Amino acid sequence: MTGDILLKFDNVAVGYDRHVVLSDLQLALPQGGFIGLLGANGSGKSTLIKTILGILPPLGGRLEFPSHQGRAPVLGYVPQRESLDSIFPLSSFEVVLMGVCGRVGPGLRIGAEEKNFARQCLHAAGAENLSRQPFAQLSGGQKQRVLIARALAAQPEFLLLDEPTAGIDAVASLAVMELLSRIHREQGLTILLVNHDLRVMQKYANHVLWLHEGRVLEGTAHELLNRDKIAEILGWQLH
Amino acid sequence: MFSPDFLLRNSVYVSLLIGAACPLVGVYLVLRRLVFMGVALPQISSCGIAFAFALHTWGAVPHLENGENTLAFAGSTVFTLTAILVLSFLERRGRGLVEGRIGTAYVLAGAWSVLLLVKNPFGEHGLLDRLKGEIIAVSNSDLAWTAGAFALVLICLLLFQKEFMLVSFDPEMAVTLKKNVVVWDALLFLLIGLTISMSVLSVGPLVTFGFLLIPPLIARLFAANMRQFALLAVGSGVASSLAGFYIALRWDLPVGAVDVALLGVVFAVMCAGKKIFSMSRPAPV
């Protein structure tokens, strides 16, 4: 981490259809961090991530990107893979090519250089052998690799992933987390990752946001994910 | 059928154009799971034609020399575009019962088409035939207008293919890439609406829906990527319209009904062929 602040929440309220899910958020996400976003189902994790992405407008307050002189950084997004309809007969390569659309203007064809870059992203995600395969027919772990490649193809400065290991087996899950860890290490990319697994977060995240009973707890992984603090947050009795 | 002396040559061309254009926009209706909209829109388009002629009968619009087609086109386009924009906006908002709304629009459009036609003298002079899809007399100017409109649709679909695919497959990703999803959706639906309007004017709602739906379903059985999907859909649409026209001509049958029946046969054969092919392949280990 560089010590700079990538994203600052100034009294932000998030929600949808005028229904506030989280309010009075005062947060500062570090540039270059591997940030874990924890919380129970319905705690507002997806709402928060969609607000950062600009998919949902904040219901109050301001989101600022101080290290980018106010402009929003280029975002890479890996959605929950179930949200993508399997009726589309897209090859994995066609899915990854969507990532470069932000740089290719309307009416212009995607050039050879961008196509090569998309292939490199597939390679970086360990999915080059999936290029021609129909996306809909891939396993959960394979889809996740292709979606990570698509997000990388956008040349992001901030990568956000919504439960990338949900519903995939332990081996594939470990492979996805190792891939993200390598991308973070090699590219210095800021990563925000939604995940339910405390052990995964302890191992990979260096900064944690924990949504709990309408509040957001923020701190380093060391501060928030030690045994005593977890027990305190969850109200467990330790003997 | 392509001989310059053949009386119905323009009708053949119009059939082929519809066989190519409707499947191409139908691809998006199928992929976005808006098949019901594909049923309702041609019916709404027909209602627009009936309404335009009713306005003429009531004296609300002036008589135009050879203005029948202009009137029909205006009614069809206004009704179709309004309906598609309203229905797609409501669909994106995700509230209420989508199928219920579209079903209601379909049945109301059908009922009003009948009511508007039943007391209209134009109904006795070709309007009912037009709505039934009797592709008989197509003038050179009708052919030129249809070809021009479909060329415009084709150019836009090719130019903005990546934007249309992105907002259809993953609108949230499109937002993160700074694409205006509402604008791209609106443009796509305008193109779909224009294609349906032009097609209904020539072949009626039944045939239009047949070509919107069945060729993309045939293509989906075999396509491994979007290029194959679009090409197979267009190919099966064009081949069926050509073969359908020939069969109708040979045995003196209504062209539209033959086209749709033939598409149904092709779809059934392809489904069976795929099933047999997949059963004959060894199961993956």
Secondary structure elements and their pairing?
The complex is a heterodimer of chains A (239) and B (285).
Chain A: E1 5-16, E2 19-30, E3 34-39, H1 45-53, E4 60-64, E5 75-78, H2 92-97, H3 112-124, H4 140-153, E6 158-162, H5 170-187, E7 190-194, H6 198-204, E8 207-212, E9 215-220, H7 221-224, H8 227-234
Parallel strand pairs in A: 3-7, 3-8, 5-6, 6-7
Antiparallel strand pairs in A: 1-2, 1-4, 8-9
Chain B: H1 9-31, H2 35-57, H3 68-93, H4 98-118, H5 127-132, H6 140-159, H7 161-169, H8 171-176, H9 181-222, H10 226-251, H11 255-280
Helix pairs in contact in B: 1-6, 1-9, 1-10, 2-3, 2-4, 2-9, 3-4, 3-9, 6-9, 7-9, 9-10, 9-11, 10-11
What does the model show?
The complex is a heterodimer of chains A (239) and B (285). Chain A is built from 8 helices and 9 strands. With 239 residues, chain A is of the alpha/beta class. Chain A has a 6-stranded mixed beta sheet with strand order 5-6-7-3-8-9, with helices on both faces. Chain A is globular and about 50 Å long. Chain A starts with a strand and ends in a 5-residue tail after the last helix. The model of chain A has no long low-confidence stretch (mean pLDDT 88). Chain B has 285 residues and is an all-alpha fold. Chain B has one domain: ABC transporter involved in vitamin B12 uptake, BtuC, CATH 1.10.3470. Chain B is 80% helix and 0% strand. Chain B is built from 11 helices and no strands. In chain B, α1 packs across α9 and α9 (181-222) crosses α10. The radius of gyration of chain B is 19 Å and the shape is globular. The A-B interface holds A 50, 53-55, 75-77, 79, 83-85, 87-91, 94-95, 97-99, 101-102, 104, 106-107, 110, 132, 134, 150, 154 and B 30-31, 33, 159-160, 162-163, 165-166, 168-170, 172-179, 220, 223-226, 228-229.
